Amino acid sequence: MIDIITLIPNSFYASFLISIAVAIMGSLIVINKSSFIAGSIAHGSFGGIGLAIYFSLPILLMTSVFAVFLALILSYISLKIPHRSDAVIGAVWAVGMSVGILFSELTPGYNAGLISYLFGSILTISNEDIYMMIGVDTLLIIFISILYNQILLISYDKEFAKVRGLNVGFLYTLLLVLISLTVVMSVRAIGLILIIAMFTMPPFIAEKFTKSLKGMMILSGILSAIFMISGIFISFYFDISATATIILVATTFFFLSLFKK
Fold it and tell me: Mind listing the domains of the chain with CATH numbers?
């Protein structure tokens, strides 16, 4: 017990910080049925990683800018031409990945760290990643504290929200921008490929056992922390991938929850 805490303290900090993001943004992704859009932002943001590596720019900063740009595009398309949004979402997903692959291949030498951005490496989380997680979590807490009722309304009934005079377009765009920042803060820990699984399974399970969005957020955050800490301990004991183990632990409980009516 002492050895693992001494070796990988940042992974535990990251687990709790990501759990806060899962509680807030994961729940909103699930109730808004936005997992496909969130997946598009997550995979598309690989383009920002490729550009950052090629131009020797700060990876987190460049990826954040790129992911926010994708969120703005997807928000505009979803609001203006919703009947064709699925095709654009798929295109953004593919183009972003392609840009990332192209520029990473054009970069001289072998980029060993590129794999960690795709599949995650929570055991090698740096202090810089922790600081970004703290910053994004702070934004999420402020966001949900101030706009909880408005977000709740647009999540379940956008038309009624418009009748009430809410700026649905702005709130929806803000939601996607925060999703993009949440993706970037989690990319080193969970990886672009597995982020959406981590951000949807705990809220999906929590939804079955709660009767309000607040309850769903609290329970999904607790479940996320349990899954991540359990996965880290199991991976440390068996010397296997921590991120993959975390997802498998979450998936096990996800399928067990399907038996709950």
Answer: 2-255 (1.10.3470.10)
